[in-house]
Amino acid sequence: MNIKGISAPEYLDAARRARIHGAEKPGFRRLVEGLRTSREARDRLAIEFLTMAWRELEQGSAPDQPVILGVRFGEPIGKAKRSEYLSLLERIIFRSFELFRGVKGALTGRPVLYFTLRLELTALRRADESRFRAILAAFRMQMSANDDGCIRDLLAEVDEPQELQAKRSRRLIKEIKLREAQNERRLRSFGN
């Protein structure tokens, strides 16, 4: 597999195969190691995954996996793709916030949107503090008495010191990965 030319769908397929088939794990590990040394490939994958996340948001879905991977490959983003990455991340944040506010009290979808929006805001804060502050101020201005405490809690959490943010983000990523693995096991059990 061409590491520098790998696409987001190819990466997802390789990750899926490595999870399902033990024999695929060494090849996937080599892929991950190879990506660590290729800034250009990581930047391209960050943009591809965030674009994938944007498409899912436009369809009304919570794009947790593409966001996680887009953020992971985009930290830190290289200068050549920085502007594109930040613009795409901002669009995703605004759309996620809009969807999050619209889910009011529903148990399905809201927890994933909460984690995803939190991760997106944290990534923006790490990449560009001034853009993060501007978005946070805009969200606080949009809030109304009708918004529940969950939104206020989210905005307060993302405004905490970055050391706490890093710990929370790692924990959130683990929770989302665990949920994905559980869902995949359920799907496989239905197929058998």
Descriptive tags:
192 residues, 79% helix, 2 domains, mainly alpha
Describe the structure.
- It is a single chain.
- This protein is mainly alpha-helical.
- The chain has two domains: 1-37, no CATH class; 40-191.
- Helices cover 79% and strands 0% of the residues.
- The chain contains nine helices and no strands.
- It has helices at 8-20, 25-36, 39-58, 64-74, 79-102, 110-127, 129-142, 149-158, 162-191.
- Helix 1 (8-20) runs antiparallel to helix 2, helix 3 (39-58) packs antiparallel against helix 4 (64-74) and helix 6 packs across helix 9 (162-191).
- The longest helix has 30 residues, at 162-191.
- It starts with 7 loop residues before the first helix and ends with a helix.
- The model has no long low-confidence stretch (mean pLDDT 85).
Q: Mean pLDDT across all residues, rounded?
A: 85
Q: Give the biggest sheet.
A: none
Quantity of strands, as a count:
0
Tally the helices: what do you get?
9
Q: What series of H and E elements makes up the topology?
A: HHHHHHHHH
Total number of distinct structural domains: 2
Cα(first) to Cα(last) distance is 31 Å
Parts with pLDDT < 50 across at least 5 consecutive residues: none
Q: Globular, elongated, flat, extended or rod-shaped: what is the shape?
A: globular
- The amount of beta strand, in percent, is under 5%
Give a brief description.
The protein has 192 residues and is mostly helical. The protein has helices at 8-20, 25-36, 39-58, 64-74, 79-102, 110-127, 129-142, 149-158, 162-191.
